[in-house]
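Morning!

This is the sequence you dropped in the shared folder:
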Amino acid sequence: MVGGSDTFIEDLYFYIGPAVLKRDYNVLLVDLSGQGRLPFDGLPMRPDAEVPIETVVDYVLGRSEVDSDRLAAYGISGSGYLVPRSSADRESARPTCALPPSGEPAPQSLAALPSPHMRQSHRTQAHASRVPR
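The structure's back. Tokens below.
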């Protein structure tokens, strides 16, 4: 599980930890660059956050007790955008669950995304979140 820029792994535990442990799942909580205490340690948010996410996935898949067929990634807040983005670039996509922040991203945030396709995708997602069901 990966949180947003305003979360710490300690917060994430109380968000999901007891529920997954009760269901006999294992969980790894991660602070990426720019999250938790890491900005204070000189590790700011990076535009290619899928790279450290993939490093975490590779680490987990390298552990003998992990069943790679049952691995899933869960991102909330800002990582609700980053986790699916990291999974989309893998040769073997894995299940993901995303709870992105609500509302439309600021134009400055969209402009920072690396490709026009990603910028349009985020605009479409933001618009879809405002459409009544």
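Headline: The chain is about 40% helix and 5% strand.

More detail when I'm at my desk.
O.
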